[in-house]
């Protein structure tokens, strides 16, 4: 074991012991103090990477059990049974099915081939393709697939100095994977962590459609900004014509041949799931159309269902729809048992479980309220927008050094409590303030662009050897600075509009 890892582990243990042994402050229960000690332990290891993220996540419920935060160990493990965990399990299987039949690569090649012969349009084509795929396939998997395509496209060129095209195309692909992940609830883990925290702590259920209403405008605005900054400002391409690269994409697409029956069935299942996910968030449109029992059964509610039970999750609940897709794929011959288990990113699911368990413990013991009051006591920002900007800035900066999922897992429960604390000063409800702050942090966590360690797409891009650390740092810092105000304005405005529509 290397010395850095040993030092990080010792620091985590020492910090945890210090928080545990300290006198319990006024306003905080012993259970809350031990929940904070668990947070200190997990945060230290998540940030330093002394242990794999998933291993640290497994230690969260273990430490909660050892310290007696819960009287029953089952409660410490509840985060691992959260619906979001099973939603992502289903999306991993869906992604494996798409990849098994080459559907993701076909989409990539088709979209790239449709763009024109100018270098800027080629970069835009690759970025749009990457962002679209990243909404349904993990941004890491998308970057791993698209970056070799991007490098291969440039390799087809034999004219002039293509250095700037290499840089703008490779960085644009990596950044588009991160930006696209913001678009949907399943696009990247921080989105799901944020939604789970809001449901567990505030009782606010953000549907798949609700997230689309926030995420898609963010993608629509920020993706063109990334493209313009890279291709017009920092790394404008020097070559005049890239039709050879476009032709290469068309040739490869033609060589793949027509889709077979299994691939068509896979595409059908995927489209059906996508449609049902969107429909599940449109229950408010059917409230005056469907009988109450059917509305409860389809969209969820506390009233009687068609099954003569009282209360129902809703058949169109996104996690339930996702789970039903797994046996559908197996029964239709789209995947087999080995695909199901090979396609699941188990470390990410464990990271979800540990993060949600930590958030639950901090909320259940009211440690977040105490922490928010201590950390932000006396914080007097003139407008709520300034507080959102501060949250985004802190999140972006933190995600440059730590996992974006771990960043949101640590910050989300604290931001919920902060929202409740400051809401009266800004004339907002606790729910409105909490939702805005948490969603702003979730979006900001995907915008760490400056360092190779900030996100997996950054690391994959750096690993191609096509960009240097300085080139990534220059582009990333520029985008980080631009995206703080953009994210602040977009998320605050869209969430306010969404809450107004729901309230109406």
What does this structure look like?
- The chain is built from 23 helices and 2 strands.
- The chain is mostly helical.
- The chain has a domain at 1-76.
- Strands 1-2 form a two-stranded antiparallel ribbon.
- Strand 1 (301-304) and strand 2 form a beta hairpin.
- It starts with a helix and ends with a helix.
- The relative contact order is 0.14.
- Distinct helical segment count: 23
Q: The biggest beta sheet, please?
A: 2 strands, antiparallel
Which bin fits the share of residues in helices?
over 70%
**Assembly state here?**
single chain
**Shape summary:** globular
Write the layout of secondary structure elements.
Blueprint: H1 3-21, H2 30-48, H3 53-67, H4 73-76, H5 83-100, H6 103-114, H7 119-134, H8 139-155, H9 163-181, H10 189-202, H11 208-234, H12 243-256, H13 261-279, H14 292-299, E1 301-304, E2 310-312, H15 318-331, H16 337-343, H17 346-364, H18 367-376, H19 384-399, H20 404-422, H21 430-445, H22 456-463, H23 469-503
Antiparallel strand pairs: 1-2
Helix pairs in contact: 1-2, 2-3, 2-17, 3-17, 5-10, 5-15, 5-16, 5-17, 6-7, 6-12, 7-8, 7-9, 7-11, 8-9, 8-12, 8-22, 9-11, 9-22, 10-17, 10-20, 10-21, 11-23, 13-15, 17-20, 18-20, 19-21, 19-23, 20-21, 21-23
